[in-house]
Amino acid sequence: MNLQGKAYFIVQSALLAALLSGCSGGVKQTGTPAAAPSASEASKPEPSGQPSAKSSAAPATYIMNGAVLSDIRAKIAAGNAAEYKAALDQLKREADAALKTPPFTVTAKTSVPLSGDKHDYMSMAPYWWPDPAKADGKPYIQKDGQTNPERDTEKYDAVRFGKMAGTVETLALAYYLTGHEPYAVQAGKLLRTWFLDSATKMNPNMNFGQSVPGRADGRKEGVLDSRHFLATSDAASLLEGSTGWSKQDQDGYRSWLSQYVRWLKENPLALQEKKATNNHSTWYDAILTGLMLHSGDREGAAAYLKESVPGRIAAQIDKDGGQPEEMKRTRSFHYPVFNLEAFSMLALYGQKTGFDLWKYETADGKSIKKAFDFLVPYFNGKPWPHAQIKAENEADFAAYLREAAIIYSDRSMAEAADKTLGSAKSSSRVNLIAPQPPKVSP
């Protein structure tokens, strides 16, 4: 783990004490990234609170908090994890159900992409509908924020892809925390089917992602579908050393990721997505950088973060923390949160590569922190004043709210995470993958 990541873990106790007094803020970084750690520092393992049944080094995850995972696993091994019982019980129930899940594959779709190869992933853009004025409905017309259920049919891969990624994540997390090998065996089987087995694997491209009937067989927005690779990559890291996921499997998976990274860097559709002015470009950065890290290109990932992300912050976040391109949508609360999720991922990568994006601030005062400060009051009950055509479940964002609560010593962010989780506050897996801010006495 790099020096900055080690410091983050070591000083958490000091930050927690500050949190109790309700302090906020932190040292600002203006314009210049922090220096990257030395190679020797970067190679040191993360510390862990207690020894676990296996290695005490934190896993090489980039979205899930590796230090938290390692600490909880040690507590479980020592029989000292009562505070996580509800979350762990829920995770095991989901993992037990996942043991019965048949493998998912792109070759199972009922349609064939223009390439003629069912190994090419294929999806339909969510907000496009048949034109009622046309006999065949084509070309489809856009209804922003209204999802066409046709996208979720067996004709396309989108639902199957999401289920595969979610199931693998559940199994891998349950395996890492409990050591129950059948979870790893099933997760490995699902990963090999989707990525490695010649008869069923996905080709490493998104050439036919987010198509629109009558308009485009594949669009730049298809890159966004590939955010699920971030979940499968963290999961694959949790499986290392298990009987269900061999070194050969991991090497093959990393090779697949490297091929997809090449597609992201070279394909015209992907490069168009990189130039987007809204959340699509932030997610392009999060996907590309995360997969570079997982495929072993740490140096390239670090360089890309410093090159790209300051410009994204400058262009997409206002001085007051608003995100104009997202807030003009019909789901005007969801999309700023969705964009900030990608920015938060980039900040987590920065912790591992020596660039403190959590504290980074442009010369004119724009920052990720400002975006959190802008949204948190609305999580905590303040009425949202902009267009929002449906209720949203933003529970997935709770992990980033908790990370931010620790980083910024801001109790309101921890409260926002709890409100977002609602009745699942105790049983959510967020309790297993993100830091727990301290409980404040009433």
Describe this structure in words.
- By secondary structure, the chain is mainly alpha-helical.
- The protein contains 18 helices and 6 strands.
- The chain has helices at residues 3-10, 12-20, 39-42, 66-77, 85-98, 158-178, 181-196, 228-239, 247-266, 268-274, 279-294, 298-316, 324-327, 334-353, 368-379, 398-407, 411-421, 430-433, and strands spanning 29-30, 122-124, 128-129, 141-142, 208-211, 360-361.
- A two-stranded parallel ribbon has the order 1-6.
- Helix 7 crosses helix 8, helix 12 packs antiparallel against helix 14 (334-353) and helix 16 packs antiparallel against helix 17.
- The protein is globular and about 65 Å long.
- The two termini are 37 Å apart.
- The model is unreliable at 1-53 (pLDDT under 50).
Please give the share of residues in helix.
40-55%
Element pattern in H and E:
HHEHHHEEEHHEHHHHHHHEHHHH
Total strands: the figure is 6
> Strands across the major sheet, in which order?
1-6
**Pairing-aware structural class of the strands and helices?**
mainly alpha
Note the beta-strand portion.
Answer: under 5%
Poorly predicted regions are 1-53
Q: Based on Cα principal axes, name the global outline.
A: globular
- Calculate the terminal CA-CA distance, rounded to whole Å: 37 Å
Radius of gyration: 21 Å
Largest sheet: 2 strands, parallel
By DSSP (H or I, 4+ residues per run), the number of helices equals: 18
From the structure provided, what is the oligomeric state, counting identical versus distinct chains?
Answer: single chain
Would you tell me the overall average pLDDT? Answer: 90
